[in-house]
Amino acid sequence: MMHEGAKAVMNPPDAPTKRKSKKLFKKIVRNWQLYIFMAPALLTVIIFNYVPMYGIQIAFKNYVPALGMAASKWVGFDHFTRFFESYYFWDLIWNTLSISLYGLIVGFPLPILLALAFNEIRNGPFKKTVQTVTYAPHFISMVVMAGMIITFLTPSSGMIVNLLELIGITPPSFLTDPRWFKTVYVLSDVWQATGWGTIIYLAALTAVDPGLHEAAILDGASRMQRIRHINFPVIVPTITILLILNMGGLLGVGYEKILLLQNPLNMESSDVIATSVYRTGLLEAQYSYSTAVGLFNSVVNAVLLIVVNQVVRKTSENSLW
Amino acid sequence: MVSSIKETKQDKIFLAFVYLILTVALVIVAYPLIYILSASISNPTLVAAGEMWLLPKDVTFEGYRRVFQDSSIWNGYLNTIIYTVVGTLVNLIVTLPAAYALSRRDFVGRNLFMILFLVTMFFGGGLVPTYLVVRSLGLVDTMWALILPGATSVWNLIVCRTFFQSSIPKELQEAAEIDGCSNFRLYFRIILPLSTALIAVMALFFGVGHWNNYFSAMIYLNHQEKYPLQLVLRQILVLQQMSAESGTIGASMATSLNSKAEVAALVKYAVIIVATLPIIAVYPFLQRYFVQGVMIGSVKG
Hints:
Chain A contains 16 helices and two strands.
């Protein structure tokens, strides 16, 4: 990607430089319309992504809306220390990390297994049906999903509650017992996302060379062996990349769903950093404090992503950069 | 997959196991969906008692009748349609041309622009600073607060750029340039007509995103009459505020609907179906495109 620029720099600097810059100028003028194509996207990204980054400074200030950002007083790391010393700090960290890790451990391998299974069976109505049905939950909105969870788990009338009673298990109070919150959250995510998650692996699996399978069959390899030694290695790069991205997002759990499932009774295990940012920032209007907490969160995320990527780069050739 | 001439017994058992796994997955995913559909037209007393398991029992359309009588649901529906159509159009108008410009090798500055976009994928201002920007622009409580901040989706921008780079022959552009065709003409007359599949995929991705979005509506909209469907659903399904008092119970239903909670449950099942139906109904026909979209994106990670 950087080659063109690099070449331009490395060219002998005597006569051609002038001609080069003239040529560059000409190129820019000739394609002026392309800059108009860029403008709307660039403008919205600058306004809604970069200007807020400038606004992060309020994490180090005592932001008073009436004074404005510039005139508000600097307080250094006060908001951060207040957050680190708050009694719920470790709860937030633990909840955020444990929900992410729980989801990763349960949810990450399943799409891989399902994709490998899809890949084994012939194209036909059965395969098409299973795919269509398992992809479908991806399109169910967060609100409807939360509604389904609440309805199914409602004591004494919910479908899952009734099902458990039918097989002789006394159902716990899923919605209000803090011990059940994480399981409910993770398993409903698995239900919703596993099918859709197979697509990226199925795309990768189309790269498998059929000749390898033919040769392996002639050598008497079983299906299991062929999956293990032919199909699986093909999707390893995809697995690695997705794993890195997931590790980088460990502190970025899907707060939109948590917010919907949260209630005062399950709070001790359902409150994560992002929901606390929402509550303190937008509901309680503690702008500076909440921005500090959010900044802490995104910095940890960025560091995690870089660290995991470095570790992976050391141990294999697949990494993000 | 490759069909072998002779399947060993071990392979047959293995394949049977694969079918078993897929069948289990099918049942686990399909059952709750069928259950909701059946529950939405069953007698709520039987549903709550756990007597309705698969097929509707004692069929009633009371739930749907109430949903259709509820003006806040209609209003939410209408708002959602407006936000989805306008939002998707804005997304396309902003994202497609930029992606095309970035796909051109002779576009000076493309690397710089690309880096500007990529940074936003990994780092952002966060909730409150973004909210403050939207507020200072006077967008709070308008539909633009739901549309403009996410107008450029960097992920989709990359997908589109990859598509333009890999699926539009470069010779076309060179020929057009020699003929003195401007970039505008090239884009509107040649590039876009060749990219209908991409436009369909993008319109669908963006459209589903707008249809299902609740969070930005929740933080930016203050007035009930501006609420999109998902926020109305949140009140009904999550906050359990049901306007179930709307309308009188039909004479035949009066005896069987004995508690308000059961009516509320019936309405919930019906409202889930009504809200999700537009997407679930078109989805099987468009499935091909959705899958294509993910694949275009995954070609170059």
